[in-house]
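Bumping with the actual sequence this time:
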Amino acid sequence: MDPSLSTSGGSSESLPSYPVDFDLAGDLKLEQKDFSSRQGPFFSIYIVLGAGLVVLGAVFSFGVDGGTPLLGGILIACGAAFAIGNYYVVRYTAGNRVVGLRLTDQTVEFQKVGRVPIVVEWGDPSLKVDLAQFLSNAEKHLPRGDARLDHPQWVDVFRPPSRFVKLETTLPPAAFDTILREAQRRNLTVQEFRVAFYWHSAPRSPGWLAYDKEGSVGPKHELNGRVVQIRGSAWKGVPED
C-alpha cells in the first residue's frame, strides 16, 4: 500500500456513539436517473426482442413459412426466458437501490426501500468490501449522467465465495471515510492501490467501469483513482485478481 494514500492510519478510537446514520437518498436519485437514461433502454430492447421471439415461435408452431412445432417451441422457450430474465434484472436493479447507511459497533447496514437491508458484519471472516474513488478526470472516463460524476466515491459489497457484487452504491465523502476508518480501527485487512479507471464498452452493450492497478496500467490509461480492499480474516493469504 502506498503510504501517501492512507487516511486515518488505523485509529484505536471508536465513533463517538452508535449507530451512525448517513442519508443516501440523494445518491439514489442520481443512480435512478443514471439507470433510466443509460441502461434502462437496453434492457427494454432485450425484453421486446424476447417477446418477439415468443410471437415468432407461436407463428412457426402452426407451420407458417416452413416452421415446425419443435422449432416454434424452441423459439417460444428461448424468447420467454430472455424476456423474463431481463425483466427481473430490471426489477432487481430497481429494488436494490440504497437509501440509507447505518454503522453500528457490530455491523454496516445498507437500507433499501421496502426491502430487507443488506447487513455486513465487521467480524464476519468472509467480509469482502471494496471502496473506490476517482481522484481526477472522472468526466473523461464516465458516460454522461453517470452517478459517479457527482459522487466520485462508491462501495462494492461482494457475496463470497463468488466474485459477484451483491451491492454497489455511491457514497458521500463522510460515509466513505467512516467505513474506511472503522475497518482500520478493527484491524481488518485493508489494502489500498492506485488505479487507472477506464470505461470498458463491449459491442452493443452499455459498458462498465474497469481499472488497472498501478504497475500494470494499460496503454493510453492514466492513474486517476484508488481502490481500497477491506477483507475479513478468511481472506488472509488469498491472492486478489
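The C-alpha cells above came from a reply further down the thread. Confidence is low (pLDDT under 50) at residues 1-12.
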